[in-house]
């Protein structure tokens, strides 16, 4: 039946009145399938398509796949008269010409506000669309995302979430972290097949982003494990219910989906800004490794208070050790294998009570304060170099720098300022990049390593061959030394396999003009084998154990001396 002219005119009037008050570049009316019924405004410049060509097409066809899913999820639970604001969507590459960016990508970000029609029998949606500059969107420092869900990867999440929590605090709002556990992907694949399982996971990711403080503060923490940082006014049960409704839409039985969540509140917390990230790092790590069932059975807020108290107690204790200079430094010689004369010394951390620092360093990594520990050790090493220079002794020391510290711009700035006090002696401070935390961002690490080398520091890649350390490190990082992990050195005289691996590393390093260090050398046979293979430097009990004292050079300057006078020539700077 034809719509009367007066009704059509009234609809047009309502649309343009809405447009006038929407403060947007484009106004779109669409049905529940996202098919565009009407569009007005700067269609061509914003959406890259003529008005006549857009009508009748689904808006989701113009969007990048993750954002088409996000739009679908945003519409799923919107009730008549309800509105959803600040939804950032990205157009598909082919939908728009290059925006003038350096990379020339064919993409444009639009900010939308969705409002559902009050007419229950006509489930139409009105979208007010504005062009949003890419650099004006909330980044929270996150870059990498899970391929299927579109959620921030775990390695980026704690930083992004802590920034979002702080922004909420500034506006007088309280934030929460809700941790969710859903069935694992293998179980979903068996029930619904890989393709539908991925579609389900993509919609789950979209729902979490819709409830998050910003698009970067929702994450996939592992198989079936998710986290979302949201306002305290958002009921966590609604998030779980939204996830379960996604499962219902895919005809999944409740026992298959079995979404479960626990919420940690930041309300009333006296945590400092840096401590928010520390607590998040610790809690997320525990949840990722143990799962939701192993969390304390008491109320989540009580759990958080107890967790906060426990972690802060350890943080305060460690910071007291650091800032009250109650840490000791020991020094172990690294010698030239050819004549066993010291090339430099590695600075090793020791605590006053004599306990191993390993557990504390791992804890500092977990709560993301290891940069404070690294800075304290660097401070001690720099003082020792300065004291030696005053006695006309040219002392070279190597300090450990964790992967987390290397990727921390604030730490690098503080390290640069501190090392700058050495003046001409700056090249005597060598940096060993340790891998207690994986170097997840190699391009950024490469920039940091070049920054250190440009400032005059030699850089060594520690524990090569252990953990995640591999050839891509050598491919992307311009380093001066590679320290071969001691696990390969222990049995090098008995195992042809270990010897072949070490020889392969040595050959590669020689081709790249990188000097090599073998650690954990304990006997003469190991020394001779490594010397014959062409290893440059060695470290181990055979040459000296870690000691708080460094022997002063004797007057003869013989081979037994540990140190060298200023001005003595050295082939590696």
Structural features:
elongated; disordered C terminus; 5-stranded antiparallel sheet; alpha/beta; 573 residues; Alpha-Beta Plaits; Beta-Lactamase; 20 strands; single chain; 8-stranded mixed barrel; TIM Barrel; 3 domains; 20 helices
User: How does the major sheet shape up?
Assistant: 8 strands, mixed, barrel
Low-confidence sequence ranges:
17-22, 94-108, 133-142, 296-300, 553-573
The CATH topology of the largest domain comes to TIM Barrel
Average pLDDT, all residues: 77
State which percent range the strand residues make up.
15-25%
Computed CA radius of gyration, to the nearest angstrom: 30 Å
| CATH classification, class level of the largest domain | Alpha Beta
How many H/I helical runs?
20
Task: Offer a quick outline of the entry.
41% of the residues lie in helices and 20% in strands. The chain has 573 residues and is an alpha/beta fold. The protein is elongated, with a radius of gyration of 30 Å.
What would you say this structure looks like, in words?
By secondary structure, this protein is an alpha/beta fold. It has 3 domains: 5-136, PAS domain (Beta-Lactamase), CATH 3.30.450; 152-315, Alpha-Beta Plaits (2-Layer Sandwich); 325-548, EAL domain (TIM Barrel). It is built from 20 helices and 20 strands. Strands 11-12-14-15-16-17-18-19 form an 8-stranded mixed barrel. Strand 8 and strand 9 (225-231) form a beta hairpin. Helix 10 packs across helix 11. The longest helix is centred in the middle third of the chain and has 24 residues, at 300-323. Mean pLDDT is 77; it is low at 17-22, 94-108, 133-142, 296-300 and 553-573.
């Amino acid at each position: 039946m034809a719509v009367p002219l007066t009704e059509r005119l009234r609809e047009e009037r309502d649309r343009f009145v809405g447009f006038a008050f929407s403060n947007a570049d484009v106004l779109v009316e669409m049905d529940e399938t996202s098919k565009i019924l009407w569009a007005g405004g700067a269609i061509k410049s914003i959406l890259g398509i003529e008005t006549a060509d857009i009508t009748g097409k689904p808006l989701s066809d113009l969007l990048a796949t993750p954002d088409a899913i996000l739009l679908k999820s945003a519409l799923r639970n919107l009730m008549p008269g309800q509105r959803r604001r600040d939804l950032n969507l990205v157009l598909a590459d082919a939908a728009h010409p290059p925006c003038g960016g350096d990379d020339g990508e064919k993409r444009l970000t639009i900010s939308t506000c969705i409002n559902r029609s009050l007419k229950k029998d006509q489930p139409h949606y009105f979208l007010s669309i504005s062009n949003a500059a890419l650099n004006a969107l909330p980044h929270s420092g996150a870059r990498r995302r899970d391929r299927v869900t579109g959620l921030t990867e775990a390695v980026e999440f704690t930083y992004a979430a802590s920034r979002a929590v702080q922004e909420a605090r500034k506006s007088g709002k309280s934030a929460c972290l809700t941790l969710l556990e859903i069935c694992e992907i293998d179980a979903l694949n068996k029930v619904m097949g890989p393709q539908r399982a991925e579609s389900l996971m993509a919609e789950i990711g979209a729902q979490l982003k819709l409830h998050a403080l910003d698009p970067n503060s929702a994450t996939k923490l592992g198989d079936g494990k998710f986290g979302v940082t949201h306002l305290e006014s958002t009921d966590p049960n609604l998030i779980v219910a939204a996830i379960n409704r996604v499962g219902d839409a895919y005809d999944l039985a409740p026992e298959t989906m079995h979404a479960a969540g626990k919420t940690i509140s930041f309300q009333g917390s006296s945590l400092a800004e840096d401590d928010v990230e520390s607590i998040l790092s610790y809690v997320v790590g525990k949840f990722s490794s143990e799962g939701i069932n192993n969390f304390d059975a008491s109320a989540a807020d009580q759990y958080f208070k107890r967790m906060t108290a426990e972690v802060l107690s350890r943080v305060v204790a460690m910071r007291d050790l650091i800032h009250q200079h109650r840490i000791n430094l020991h020094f172990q010689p690294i010698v030239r294998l050819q004549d066993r004369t010291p090339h430099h010394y590695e600075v090793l951390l020791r605590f006053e009570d004599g306990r191993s620092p390993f557990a504390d360093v791992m804890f500092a990594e977990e709560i993301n304060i290891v940069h404070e520990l690294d800075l304290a050790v660097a401070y001690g090493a720099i003082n020792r170099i300065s004291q030696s220079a005053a006695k006309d002794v040219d002392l070279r020391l190597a300090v450990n720098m964790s992967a987390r510290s290397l990727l921390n711009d604030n730490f690098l700035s503080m390290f640069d300022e501190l090392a700058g006090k050495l003046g001409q002696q700056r090249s005597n401070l060598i940096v060993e990049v340790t891998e207690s935390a994986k170097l997840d961002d190699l391009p950024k690490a490469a920039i940091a390593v070049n920054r250190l080398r440009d400032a005059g520091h030699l850089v060594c890649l520690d524990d090569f061959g252990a953990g995640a350390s591999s050839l891509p490190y050598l491919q992307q990082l311009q380093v001066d030394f590679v320290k071969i992990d001691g696990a390969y050195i222990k049995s090098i005289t008995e195992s042809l396999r270990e010897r072949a691996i070490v020889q392969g590393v040595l050959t590669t390093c020689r081709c790249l003009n990188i000097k090599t260090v073998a650690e954990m050398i304990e006997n003469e046979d190991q020394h001779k084998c490594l010397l014959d293979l062409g290893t440059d430097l060695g470290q181990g009990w055979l040459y000296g154990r870690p000691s708080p004292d460094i022997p002063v050079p004797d007057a003869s300057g013989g081979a037994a001396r540990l140190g060298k006078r200023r001005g003595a020539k050295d082939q590696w700077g």
